[in-house]
Amino acid sequence: MILVDNVGGIFPAINHSPWNNVTLADFVMPFFLFIVGVALTLAYKRVSNRAVATMKAMLRALKLLILGLVLQGGYFHGVNNLTYGVDLLTMRLMGVLQRIAIAYLLAAICEIWLKSDDEVISGWSLLKRYRFQLLVASILSVVYITLLYGLYVPDWEYQISVQGSINSFSVKCGVRGDTSPACNAVGMIDRNIMGIQHLYKRPVYARTKQCSINSPAKGPLPVDAPSWCQAPFDPEGLLSSVMAMVSCLIGLQFGHVIVHLQDHKERLVHWMVPSFSLMALGFSLDFFGMHINKALYTFSYTCLTAGAAGLLLAGIYLLVDVYGIRRPTYVFEWMGMHALMIYVLVACNIVPVLLQGFYWREPKNNLLKLVGV
Q: Source organism's superkingdom (predicted)?
């Protein structure tokens, strides 16, 4: 995520896809949600008091949510001119940490409360023990697909400020089941519930061919650019976060394999079969028109990324736990143990603010200039 934020504009392969299809960057968020689910199975392997465990999970999620509002709501911004603070009327309400908090809380509650006492002796009995969690994931998927393809999206308008003047734009829609940047149900729900002023101001689709002459990099608008190119759109919106919860719930099922199966071969088989199946389903759905799209967090995108995460988990397990090759993974282990700290310090501009925040006489004479940057 740090690489995407800082050098994604230079290397399109590690920047987010402008709309449909995926790049390497588009696997980061679902991978994180997936491994959160896996970790939860270990954290709640034995729960002595469900009510206490639920309260702790709610408190942890609340802390993440508040931290996300402070950081991604806009408090640490304006790095180049050293400004800070945020207008509550226009602050961004959703973000990466908020999405993780929501998905984590649902998955934690499912793991604490929704599991039977059935003995696990096979893959089928494993599914039976956690059938209610699978039911929740299925219901969420059906709700998401129904809303995405069933809601009617009317025409809408928005305003942006350009050099002190207010420009108004009108976007023509009047469609149902559209997944284009302008007329999808994900954006409509966010605009109506949170308000367009609280959405992300730099939409990913600004790098599409319709909106940038330098696509897939960001650039000046083409002469015939459509009216929606500068409209706010939140990539971590409300409806798309429903499928983010499903990614976390899928991670739970992979974590259950660690908890209940001890044999290396059994674990690998119970990871690789569903992983390949999910990836095949994702590609098939994309072929038949349910496009793989990170910004909308489509069902096909969920399947593809969850399957890829499962294969990566199996590969790392084979390398580290089966063959005992741990040295190459030490740096990733350290990063995993301090993921939130790294994210806060670097990805949310605290380190850049500190580097540029101390200067001699003029802001340009800061620590970066001292080291020749």
A: Eukaryota
3-state secondary structure of 175: strand
* 289 within 8 A of 254, measured Cβ to Cβ: no
Confidence (pLDDT) at 348? 67
Task: Please state, as a whole number, how many other Cβ atoms lie within 10 Å of the Cβ of residue 15.
Answer: 23
Neighbouring residues of 150: CB distance < 8 A, sequence distance ≥ 6: 176, 177, 185
Sign of CA dihedral 197, 198, 203, 205: negative
Tell if the pTM clears 0.85, that is, is over it.
Answer: yes
**Each residue of 179-217: pLDDT tens digit?**
999 999 999 999 999 999 999 988 999 999 999 998 888
Nearest 10 degrees: CA dihedral of 357, 362, 367, 369? 140
| Predicted local distance difference test score (pLDDT) of residue 194 | 94
What percent of the chain shows pLDDT beyond 90?
64
In sequence order, the 6+-apart residues with CB closer than 8 A to the CB of 339 are: 32
| Residue in the structure block whose two tokens are 């519930």 | 193
Q: How far is CA 199 from CA 65, 237, 329, in A?
A: 16, 8, 37
* DSSP class per residue in 103-169: HHHHHHHHHHHS------SSHHHHHHHTHHHHHHHHHHHHHHHHHHHHSEE--EEEEEEETTEEEEE
CB atoms closer than 10 angstroms to residue 217:
15
For residue 274, give every residue at least 6 positions away whose Cβ sits within 8 Å of its Cβ, in sequence order, or none. Answer: 253, 254, 307, 310
**What is the H or E stretch that residue 62 is in?**
helix 50-70
Which tokens in the block code for residue 66? 């508040």
Half-sphere exposure of 76 (CA within 13 A, CB side): 20
CB proximity list for 194: less than 8 A, separation 6 or greater: 93, 94, 234, 237, 238
Selection from 303, 307, 177, 302 nearest residue 242 by Cα: 302
How far is C-alpha 251 from the geometric centre of its chain's CA atoms? 14
**Neighbouring-strand partners of residue 152:** 176
Give the residue with greater pLDDT, 6 vs 305.
305
